Amino acid sequence: MIVVTAPTGLIGRQLIQILLRADAPIRVIARDPSHLSDEVRSRAEVINGSHGDAGVVSRAFDGADAVFWLVPPDPKADSVMAAYVDFTRPAVAALDEHGIKRVVSITALGRGSPLAGRAGYVAGSLAMDDLIAGTGVALRSLAMPSFMDNIARQAGTIRDHGKFFLPIAGDLKLPSVATRDIAAVAARWLLDDSWTGQSEVPVLGPEDISFNDMAEVLSDVLGKPVMYEQIRLDAYNARFVQFGMTAAMARGMADMAWAKDQGLDLTVLRTAENSTPTSFRQWCEDTLKPAVLGQVNQRIHP
């Protein structure tokens, strides 16, 4: 039995489809099962609740062999460590209680870098992994750069203004990965019951690419000029506060962006093994372009 947390998120919902195609027995933890597809509700066992709740994870882990662990965003958390480490503590207790054999977690690049401790969400994510590793469970920590899919959050701005914004230098080439590839790597480890030990598995996408490069690709795919604009860190931080994040969580986002701008995501040497296939151009064609055009159509046909 494989337990999947965050099953309605970008990674989780794609992971579930791969596992279902493999006819794997699945148990999902969902705060709102109505957000699951009919197929998932009919073919997977559903545990209703938060995977930060001790009773919920205890029920979910009972009789399971493997767990996919992903901490959901919590914009209202008191601190980054509360959002990652404190949220994970009940699950860590349940791993021991129920003898879970393998865990595949989603974490961040940066381990071993002098920047990591000042990198906001990255620091929280790495501390979360240390907590899980302390149980001795077999662990594969999938270490991520930024997601291509995050650009889709700015689909409306790209549509209306031909721009997207981040506080990172436009000419800095960094790894970037599509969530579909993360799901595929996670599924491969979850479906393999032969591995033991603990290790980090970087998942880097196919190439390093700058935001200026992304703007050129976007312009070509969308058939309209798109520019990237670097914004100030304080403006970036203020925007998250305006959206309702606590000051600590907004600062965590800004600190992470600062560290990435200093090269945090370049600490791992790219190899064929840690590179994944989906290019930024392919992701734009498949995901961002429909999102932008869909918003245009919604405006025409309210």
From TrEMBL:
Q: Tell me the superkingdom of the source.
A: Bacteria
Entry-linked SUPFAM superfamilies: NAD(P)-binding Rossmann-fold domains
What is the designated name of this protein?
Uncharacterized protein YbjT (DUF2867 family)
The NAD(P)-binding domain, residue ranges: 8-191
